[in-house]
Design brief:
mainly alpha
């Protein structure tokens, strides 16, 4: 009976994330398409491209995804606090996981690039280095950590923790990695996502994972 309940819960969660992700991509493509017809020159500007990707994501796509997933019942872990020293240790561990994951991601993209005869594009790097600093800061340091931690830690973990801590942690990290939608980020996003999910499971405190995500 529990297996059926687990299967139903995971299927429901998976379908909701799939639908939400498709809506996100559809809205982004539609916005870029309209702008391309009206103001095609704007698409040559990295900052405007970043804004066109982010605004539909945060104003339409993610709210829809959140609304879909919140239809499922969930229960948060018991809330606990950590010391400043523990936060610093956790931050160091985050950087270590990011570094190792980045090495794996670089190896994967190098192999893929060699097989297809050209480099694998890293759009995030272009956005981070070529876009307006204020826009990049608002997106990468403020908006992304808050919404992504809410969606991939709280929403997922709260709805899967009853099936085991390991299951909730791995699923949170895997879906976080897949959501980034590119090979460059998948490995380190998945490792980081699993570690942040582990911290959320143990503390029930989303502020901790948001703070670490902002620092990263």
């Amino acid at each position: 009976m529990e297996d059926k309940s687990m299967k139903k819960s995971f299927s429901g969660l998976g379908w909701r994330f799939l639908i939400g992700t498709l809506i996100i991509y559809a809205v982004q493509i539609a916005v870029v398409g309209v702008v391309g017809m009206v103001k095609p020159g704007w698409l040559d500007n990295t900052t405007i491209n970043l804004i066109l990707a982010v605004l539909p994501l945060y104003l339409i796509g993610m709210p829809v995804l959140i609304a879909l997933v919140k239809q499922m019942p969930g229960e948060a872990p018991v809330k606990k606090s950590i010391t400043p020293g523990q936060f610093v240790v956790a931050l160091i561990m985050c950087y270590a996981l990011m570094y190792c994951g980045n090495l794996v991601g670089t190896l994967i993209t190098t192999v893929v690039g060699a097989l297809k005869g050209s480099e694998v594009d890293n759009a995030l790097m272009a956005y981070a280095t070529e876009s307006n600093m204020i826009v990049t800061f608002l997106y990468m340091v403020i908006c992304a950590p808050i919404l992504e931690e809410y969606i991939f830690r709280k929403l997922i973990v709260d709805r899967t923790l009853k099936y085991g801590q390991g299951v909730a942690i791995v699923l949170s990290g895997l879906m976080f990695g897949l959501f980034h939608g590119n090979l460059n980020q998948f490995a380190y996003a998945m490792l980081l996502g699993m570690f942040l999910a582990f911290l959320y499971v143990k503390t029930g405190n989303l502020k901790i994972t948001i703070g670490l995500h902002m620092c990263i």
